[in-house]
Automatic annotation (TrEMBL):
Signal sequence region: none
Coiled coil region boundaries: 79-106
CDD domains, per database record: HTH_TipAL-Mta (cd01106)
UniProt superkingdom: Bacteria
A Pfam family of this chain: MerR_1
Name of protein: MerR family transcriptional regulator
Organism taxonomic ancestry: Bacteria, Pseudomonadati, Pseudomonadota, Alphaproteobacteria, Hyphomicrobiales
HTH merR-type domain residues: 5-74
GO molecular function annotation: DNA binding; DNA-binding transcription factor activity
Listed Gene3D superfamilies: 1.10.1660.10
Organism: Afipia massiliensis
InterPro entries with a match to the protein in the record: DNA-bd_dom_put_sf, MerR-type_HTH_dom, MerR_fam
Keywords per UniProt: Coiled coil, DNA-binding
């Protein structure tokens, strides 16, 4: 049985691929001609046109020439080739998302500088290890000359190191950029260091007791909020009194007027960015900002201000 043959010009017209591109594929060994004429011109058959269709599909999918060669020579399955291409494409998409996040952050800057753009770009391209280093550097600065418990600091670093997926959403990228800016703010670092020094340099602070007390108390506040009790309610008054006594105990202090005054000073100096910190960590973990205990702590603080003022 004889196969119909086509000149390279005819093959180009039938396939919609340029003569130049056909020669390129042929020279690269991807599309060997069925034969040549006496004058040395390439000729192709329907079999080569089918092969050409596969080459075009793979190229349109972004598969490289080397991988196509392996598919055609059966050294690489078509499934594996497409899987590799999909993986690469997903990485490209993730990279483009990070670029978009850097651009959004830059455009939000009121007076954009080249240094700002470089910082935004760097922050969106850090690895998990590098992101952890940013968090560790922040806690190292906060703990300078403060007797912070090393285990507590390790727990905080673990809890707040962003676990961004390989293909982060724009919201996750934006959250990381915003968090990195907060952590890099000397004023915020100084505020957190001052707060830490007040707590940790107190001789009687009991970390284990604090951790044991906070979780069940947060649960009580969450339940009160769910039942519709506001910070000014009688239920809030009860919980404010309970927290006054509990917090004083773990701080090694008496729940007297001096302690109340100390609490009021701390509440007045509270930096809203400390709340935003945990909201951003939640976003980076793919969770709602409301999954952090910020809402409950805000309710507790408002109740303390109202009832113990």
């Amino acid at each position: 049985m004889t196969h119909r043959t086509y000149t390279i010009g005819e093959a180009a017209r039938l396939s919609g691929v340029s003569v130049r591109r056909l020669r390129f594929y042929s020279d690269k060994g991807l599309l060997p001609p069925a034969g040549r004429t006496e004058s040395g011109y390439r000729v192709f058959t329907d079999e080569e046109l089918v092969r050409l269709d596969l080459i075009r599909c793979l190229r349109d999918a972004g598969v490289g020439l080397d991988a196509i060669r392996e598919v055609l020579s059966h050294e690489l399955s078509l499934t594996d080739a497409l899987r590799l291409r999909l993986r690469a494409l997903e990485a490209e998409i993730a990279s483009q998302r990070r670029v978009a996040s850097a651009l959004r952050a830059a455009l939000r800057s009121p007076e954009l500088t080249e240094a700002d753009l470089r910082r935004f770009w760097t922050m969106t391209n850090l690895s998990r290890t590098e992101r952890r280093n940013v968090i560790e550097r922040f806690y190292s600065q906060v703990s300078k000359d403060v007797r912070i418990d090393p285990e507590w600091m390790r727990q905080m670093i673990e809890a707040s190191t962003p676990e961004l997926p390989d293909d982060p959403t724009p919201e996750q990228c934006d959250a990381w950029i915003e968090l990195s800016a907060i952590l890099d703010d000397p004023e915020f670092v100084a505020t957190m260091r001052a707060n830490a020094k007040e707590v940790w340099d107190g001789a009687n602070f009991d970390l284990a007791a604090w951790q044991a007390a906070t979780d069940p108390f947060i649960a009580k506040a969450k339940d009160a909020i769910a039942q519709g009790f506001g910070p000014e309610s009688e239920r809030a008054h009860e919980l404010a009194q309970e927290w006054l006594e509990t917090s004083a105990r773990v701080m090694g202090r008496a729940p007297d007027d001096a302690y109340k005054a100390w609490l009021r000073t701390r509440y007045a100096a509270h930096d809203a960015r400390a709340v935003r910190y945990w909201e951003l960590v939640a976003i980076m973990k793919g969770q709602s900002p409301q999954t952090s205990p910020n809402r409950e702590w805000t309710w507790i603080i408002d109740a303390m201000k109202h009832h113990l003022g």
